[in-house]
Amino acid sequence: MDAPPATERIARAGYDYVVLDGQHGLIGYEGLLNGLLAIDAGGSTGLVRVEANDPTPIGRALDAGAAGVIVPLIDTADDVALAVRAAKYPPVGRRSFGPMRSALRFGPEPAKANAETVVLAMIETAQALANVEAICATPQLDGLYVGPVDLSLALGARYPGDPEIADAFEDAVARIAAAAATAGIAAGIHTFDGENANRRLKQGYSFATVSSDLSHLEAIAAEHLRVARG
Q1: Where does the record place the HpcH/HpaI aldolase/citrate lyase domain (predicted)?
Q2: Per-domain residue ranges for the chain?
Q3: What amino acid positions are annotated as catalytic residues?
């Protein structure tokens, strides 16, 4: 949501990071900037899932002060290389130098920004799963990030949570975690509640996003209503 006070409260709740969703979230660039300001005020770390694997949204998210980007719809190692080049300054990449707020986080030296800016590749397609080991070997890639719903649909699910592909999904999630571990990079995943997040962390994932702002709001509102009605 484009609601900086709510974003700051989430950041103050103790989460290690908060993701702003530029792909599916109801948020524009001004909302992205204000959200990153709110996350910083709340003492957490701001990541942005950008709208596409394109230099413009990647650069703008980083210029606005994101600590890193989650890049969607990655299929191949070549796709990852494009994302890395968009996120890193020369000579590593092709990011244009206009740090705006990011200089407050990393300082004025491009080399320091290159070393500390996080690039995460989403694994959410059948092609990405088939290429996951090669994707992990891409230089300067910091980690993977599983999009569970799109991945399940790619595996043949008729709808999110379809039990018919549960085994295939679990095999895929395990393969992704193993590939990242072998390559020495992080593995992250979006989850829908704390229980599932805890399970993935125990499975070997480095980090797990717990639900979303709208889902948190809906769950708490429904629970308060249930208790009030007895």
Answers
A1: 6-217
A2: 4-229
A3: 24
